[in-house]
Specification:
The protein is mostly helical and 243 residues long. It has 8 helices and no strands. Helix 1 crosses helix 2, helix 3 crosses helix 7 and helix 4 runs antiparallel to helix 5. Belongs to the PMEI family. InterPro entries: Invertase/methylesterase_inhib (IPR035513), Pectinesterase_inhib_dom (IPR006501), PME_Inhibitor (IPR051955).
């Protein structure tokens, strides 16, 4: 009988143990459901915050570009920010006797016109020195210098002309025009440096005077060349693209 009771007790013990996992599974279901719901809610909130941040960033960029396009001064500063001489870039363009459009391409064209004016004036200055010089060697070097500056001014005029649309529907600036303008402005800078090198080789007594007179034109050409080289980045600030 004892063995029978033991067996019966053993059987009851196994039955209780067998039921335990079922109770645990039943107890875990609400917990799993709660964790799943919480995860979904957290993911939804995270995605919402991310989307909101992207929308705000896009809105901020749009408002900045709109602000640049609405103010001539801000537009000029934005374009000149890519140059090494930002103050002279801003001042020279702002001082032109014309209404500056808040458009990066128009501002770039004005920077080229500034170069034309300054180099042309430099050429006239050197021509006057040729007339007043009594030194034959210096006179010849000055004459060569004036010719080089006139060539430089001509190259810069070609750059300005390239900015002007030839007909209806033609864009002011293209990749090809950018490449040509870079070449012309670089060549104009080389012409001016060659002018000064010639005066130095001849031992001209007016070398420093001419160098000082041409310092602004070199600075302006450097500004235009920098804007030209960084035109894609400049256009991006205005949410514009290269044509």
């Amino acid at each position: 009988m004892e063995s029978i009771n033991v067996l019966k007790g053993y059987g009851k013990l196994n039955s209780a143990e067998a039921q335990t996992p079922h109770h645990h599974r039943a107890a875990k279901r609400p917990l799993i459901l709660a964790v799943t719901v919480s995860s979904i809610v957290l993911l939804t909130i995270t995605l919402g915050l991310l989307i909101g941040a992207l929308v705000r960033e896009s809105s901020t960029e749009g408002s900045e570009a709109q602000s640049l396009r609405s103010s001539s001064a801000q537009s000029i500063r934005a374009v000149c920010s890519v140059t090494q001489h930002q103050d002279s870039c801003f001042t020279s363009i702002s001082s032109l006797n014309s209404s500056v459009e808040p458009d990066p391409e128009a501002i770039f064209e004005l920077s080229l016109r500034v170069c034309v004016n300054e180099v042309s004036n430099g050429s006239l200055f050197v021509r006057d020195l040729v007339k007043s010089s009594n030194d034959a060697r210096s006179k010849g070097a000055l004459g060569d210098c004036a010719g080089l500056l006139e060539d430089a001014a001509s190259r810069l005029r070609d750059s300005v002309a390239a900015m002007e649309a030839a007909g209806p529907g033609e864009k002011a600036l293209t990749e090809l025009k950018i490449s040509n303008i870079q070449t012309w402005v670089s060549a104009a800078m080389t012409d001016q440096e060659t002018c000064l090198d010639g005066l130095e080789e001849m031992g001209s007594t007016v070398l420093e005077m001419v160098r000082d007179r041409l310092s602004r034109s070199r600075e302006f050409m450097s500004n235009s060349l920098a804007i030209c080289a960084q035109m894609s980045a400049v256009l991006e600030k205005f949410e514009m693209g290269m044509h």
